[in-house]
Amino acid sequence: MDDTIITRFTDIPKAYSTEISTAIAIGKEIETRARDFYARNAERTEEKELKTAFEFLASQEQKHFEILDTVAQKLQEDGRFAVINKEDLRGPAPPKIYPNKKENIDEFGEKNELTILLWAMRAEKKAELFYRTQANKAELDEAKEFFNNLADFEAEHFEFLDALFSAWTSTDDFILG
Fold this sequence. Notes:
Blueprint: E1 6-11, H1 14-44, H2 48-78, E2 80-84, H3 86-90, H4 113-137, H5 141-168
Antiparallel strand pairs: 1-2
Helix pairs in contact: 1-2, 1-4, 4-5
GO molecular function: metal ion binding; oxidoreductase activity
Pfam families: Rubrerythrin
Protein name: Rubrerythrin diiron-binding domain-containing protein
């Protein structure tokens, strides 16, 4: 990834460097697994809307990986934290997806698209929690902001998937209770 996304560098105490580096390494693994999951399922699904959604999310996870990798490289090279503009983290707007299909809960099989959506929603929540935890642990304000921004984008991914799930399984505003 090119260095134009870096707005500035912040010197960090050596004690924080290991903690931030570890969190970034874990984050890179999370983003890699998410990217691979979305790419694999984009290939598998025959549902046009899900294919578009999964391709979008795979590209988002790849972008997050590249940003984490840039921050990790700069930390390793100079021992400084690379501050990234929040808009560069965001990437393009999600596609507009309005599925026409409704699926009954009794058709909710082991490997169908709804199962994949639920898994993805859960994974996005876990990623958000991981980044929020890292933000709360971070002593450096810039690292705190960076991890909170990543958490916000994982939350947006969850909301995107939740809207897709809601549209797909709409009960026409029938309230259960």
